[in-house]
Amino acid sequence: MTKAELLRDISPAIYQKLSMALVDLDESGVGYYISEGRRSLLTQCLYALQGRLDDIPQSDLADACRQARIRPPGGEKITWTLKSKHLDGIAVDIVPVRDGNVIWEYKGNEATFEVIAAIMKKHGFRWGGDWQQKDYPHYET
């Protein structure tokens, strides 16, 4: 997702905070990728299915995810709720990028995730990496 797409779809309630945080991220020199901002209920439901339903072929789920333009299943559970703040446009997922590759794995990349988290927290966002059920790319107000 480009910054322009994200800011177009994000709630006005966090527009200014997020805009300033993205400026600081750009100035930090840390590579990052905005994987998601506002999300549809369909996308949330597809995420909720991942890693839970053994009787649905993973290839069918992967096809549905490609059509919805979301991250394909990896077999693991990636959400715990159908009431995500992404649905209201008040959450964003940001992951590090190194050498042109998006980094989803926290282990071994802690320092880069922590730089992004510090900048987002400075602008009033809560970080999913601080939660009991970790969600390292997730930031919300």
Please describe what this structure looks like.
The chain is an alpha+beta fold and 141 residues long. It has 2 domains: 90 residues, Muramoyl-pentapeptide Carboxypeptidase, domain 2 (2-Layer Sandwich); 44 residues, no CATH class. Helices cover 38% and strands 14% of the residues. Strands 1, 2, 3, 4 and 5 form a 5-stranded antiparallel beta sheet that branches. β2 and β3 form a beta hairpin. The chain is globular, with a radius of gyration of 15 Å.
Short note summarizing the structure:
The chain is 38% helix and 14% strand. With 141 residues, it is α+β, with helices and mostly antiparallel strands.
Broad CATH class of the largest domain: Alpha Beta
Terminal Cα span: 20 Å
What fold name goes in the CATH topology slot of the largest domain? Answer: Muramoyl-pentapeptide Carboxypeptidase, domain 2
Shape: globular
Count the strands? 5
Encode the helix/strand succession as letters. HHEHHEEHEE
Helix content: 25-40%
Structural category: alpha+beta
Number of alpha- plus pi-helical segments: 5
- What is the count of structural domains? 2
Low-confidence stretches: none
What can be said about the biggest beta sheet?
A: 5 strands, antiparallel
Calculate the mean pLDDT score and round it. 84
Strand content: 5-15%
| Radius of gyration computed on alpha carbons | 15 Å
Q: Any idea what the CATH architecture of the largest domain is?
A: 2-Layer Sandwich
